[in-house]
TrEMBL record:
One example GO MF annotation: cellulose synthase (UDP-forming) activity
Entry GO terms, CC: endomembrane system; membrane
Topological relation to the membrane, as annotated: Multi-pass membrane protein
GO terms, biological process: cell wall organization; cellulose biosynthetic process
Active site: D136, D457
Binding-site residues for UDP-alpha-D-glucose, renumbered to this chain: E107, D136
Subcellular location: Endomembrane system
Top-level taxon of origin: Eukaryota
Annotated TM spans: 20-42, 49-68, 529-554, 566-585, 670-691, 703-721, 733-753
Species per Swiss-Prot/TrEMBL record: Brassica campestris (Field mustard)
Family matches, as Pfam families: Cellulose_synt (PF03552)
Protein name (record): Glycosyltransferase 2-like domain-containing protein
SUPFAM superfamilies reported for this sequence: Nucleotide-diphospho-sugar transferases
Keywords carried by this UniProt record: Cell wall biogenesis/degradation, Glycosyltransferase, Membrane, Transferase, Transmembrane, Transmembrane helix
Amino acid sequence: MTVSSSSFPPLCEKISHTSFFLRVVDLTILGLLFSLLLYRILHMRENDNVWLVAFLCESGFTFIWLIITCIKWSPAEDKPYPNRLDERICDLPSVDMFVPTANPVREPPIIVANTVLSLLALNYPANKLACYVSDDGCSPLTYFSLKETSKFAKIWVPFCKKYNVRVRAPFRYFLNPLVAAYDSEFRKDWKMTKREYEKLRRKVEDSTGDSFLLDGDDELETFSNAKPNNHSTIVKVVWENKGGVGDEKEVPHLVYISREKRPDYVHHYKSGAMNFLLRVSGLMTNAPYMLNVDCDMYANEADVVRQAMCVFLQKSKSPDRCAFVQFPQEFYDSNSDELAVYLGRGVAGIQGPLYCGSGCFHTRRVMYGLSPDNLENNGDLSSSATKFLDEDSLARKFGSSKELVISIVEALQGKSNPKTSLTDFIEAAQMVGHCHYEHQTNWGKTLGCLYDSVAEDMNTSIGIHLRGWSSSYICPDPPAFLGSTPSVGFEAIVQQRRWGTGAIEVLFNKQSPLRGMFSSKIRFRQRLAYLWVLMCLRSIPELFYCLLPAYCLLRNTALYPKGPCLAITVTIVVMHCLYTLWQFINNGFSVRSWYVSQSLWRILATCGWLFSIHDILLKLLGISNVGFVVAKKTTPKTMPISGYEPIQRQDDGPNSCYIHKFEFDNSCHFVPGTFIMLVNMAALASNFVGLQRSCCHHEGGRSGLAENCACILVILLFLPFLKGLFAKGKYGIPLSTLSKAAVLAMIFVVFAVGY
C-alpha cells in the first residue's frame, strides 16, 4: 500500500548518461566507415574481386556500428532509493523468486544451494518472499540438497540479518578470513556458521558421488523410477514459513517442483519450465512480482528486491508503466559482459532494456497478457478489460485448473493472496504440470515466456515491448547479481552457439523486430535495438575479414587503400581500439583484460555464432530441430584468499590465464579458429621467403605493410590457437582438428595462389 503524498521525495529517478564527446566519437567512426565504403565503390574496377568481398564485409560492420550508435545515443538508467521505501510504503508487495535448473551434473547442487541461500537471506520481509526451484532434470540430488539447504538457512538467514552481511552467498562470504578486530560474539557466530556451511557442502558434494546416502530418505521414493525425460510431476514444499510476521529469524518459503516429462511431448526447454513456475507460484503464493535468476547467479546485493520495488511502485501509476526491471548480468570471474552493460544503459534510454533471462523482476499481470491499454491511470483494470475476468475465457487461455483461474482473476485485479497453507495446493500444482496441460491454450503464445526460440528471454522481451510496455534498467554498485562464466573453450563456445541460434530464430518468428517496423506501440529505435540480435550473423563477414589479409598476401594484391587514403583504415582501427580500451580502463579493468575480451569475442564469433547459422539452416530445411545444451557450471571453491574484499569481481578472472588455459577438444567448433590461424601464418611465411605471386593484373597495387600488419593482428587475436599448436592435453589442439584445418588451409593457399 502506497502512502500518497507529494511531499515525499521520489522512490527512483532516471539518470541520464548522455555524453556529447562519446556521441562525436561514435559519429566519427561511423563517418570513417562510410568514407571507406565510398572509397571502395569509387575504386572497385581498379582492384581485384577481393575488394567486393571486403566491401560487403565492411558494409555489415558499418550497419552493426550504426545500430550500436543508435542504441547508445541516449543512455540512461533508473536510480532507486530503497531507504525511502519504508517512509512511503506501509505494506510491501510480495515477490516470488524462481530458480530453474536442469542437470545436476552440469549444474552441481551446491551451486543451486548457494543461489537459493542468497535469495532466502535478502533484506526483505521473509513473509513476503517465496523461493521456487524448478528441476527439469528431476534429480533426487537436487531435492536432497534443497532439504539440507533449508536446514542451514535457519542458521544462515538470521546470521546475515543480525550482522547485516553484505554478500549472502556463503561460498563467497567465507572466502574472507575472520578478522581479529571483530567482537567475540560475532567471532563465535561466524565460526559456528562457517562450520555448519562446511557440513552442508560436504554432505551435498558427498551425495553426488555416493547414492547410498540418499537411500534412507523416504521422501526420495518419488524419484525411484523417475528419469530426466520420463517422469510425473513432482511438487514438494521443502520449507513453509508458517510464522508469517516478517521476523528476522524467519526463513521464506522454499518449494521444489519438477514438471511432468514424457519422450513423446515437446517441453520447450527453459521457457516451458518458467511457465510451470509461473502457474505453481500463482496457485501457492500469487505474488504480484517475480524474480527470475539462473541457478549460478547469486544475489550479491541484499537490498536488490527493495531496489526493484522502488521502480515498480514509483511507476505503477505513471503513463510510462514498467513491465520488468532488468539488472545487468555480471560475473565474479570475468568481465566479458561489459559491452552489454553499455548497451543496456543505451536501450534503457529508449523504451527500456531487453529481458536477459536472469536477474530480472517481472510483473505477474504483464506475464498474464495484460497491455497498458487494459489499465486505468490508477492501475486498476479498465472497463474494456473486464473480459479478462470471464472464467470460461480464462480457462480457454490458461488451462482447465479452476484453482489457477481463481488465482489469475485475483492477480489481474491486483488483490493480495490470502494466507493459506502451501500444502493445500500441491494436488492442483501437480495438475498444471502435466504434459498435456498447455495443449490448446495460450501458454507460450501470448502468455508467460514465449516459445518458438531457445532464446526465450529475447522472444519474451520483444513480445512485452510490442504490447506497449516499457522496462527499467538498474546498474547498482556493487552488482546486484554475480555468476560464473563457463570454462574458456568448448563450454563458452557452445553457450554462445545456443544464444546465437535463438537470436536468429527470433528474426523468423512472429515476434521478429523486422515486422511492423513503424508500429506505434514500440519505438523505432527500440526495434533497432532488437535488431542487435543480428550481431550473431556477423560471424560470416568476420570469418571472411580474418582471411582476406592472408588471401591478399598470397595473391599479392592490395586489400586496403594506398597512399594518404590508407589513413582512413588506420584511423578506424586506432580509434576503435582506444575507444574500447578507454571503456575498460574507465570501469577499473586492465589493458590485458581489454585484449583478452577482444580476442575472446573474435573467437566466439567465428567458432560459435558461425554454427548458429548452420543450425538455423538445418531447421529451415526441416532436417533437424534446434537443441538446448545446458552450459556446465563451475563448482565454487571456499578456500581462503588474500585480501579483505574477495567478493568484488576479479580484474581478469579466469581470463587472466585465458591465453594459457584455453581448452580444446576434437569438436568441429575449433576447426574455423585453427584454420584462420594456419592460413595467416602461411601467408606471412610465404611473404617472408618471397613465395608470393610475382605479377599483379590489377591497377590497385600489390600487397604491402598494411596487409602484413593485418595478418599479425589476426594472429594476435587468435593467439590461444597458436599456443594450442604446441601445448598438450586439453590445452592443445587435437590432431583430428589440426588435420581438418590443415587440409582446408592447403586448399585455401592453392586457391589464392593459383586462381
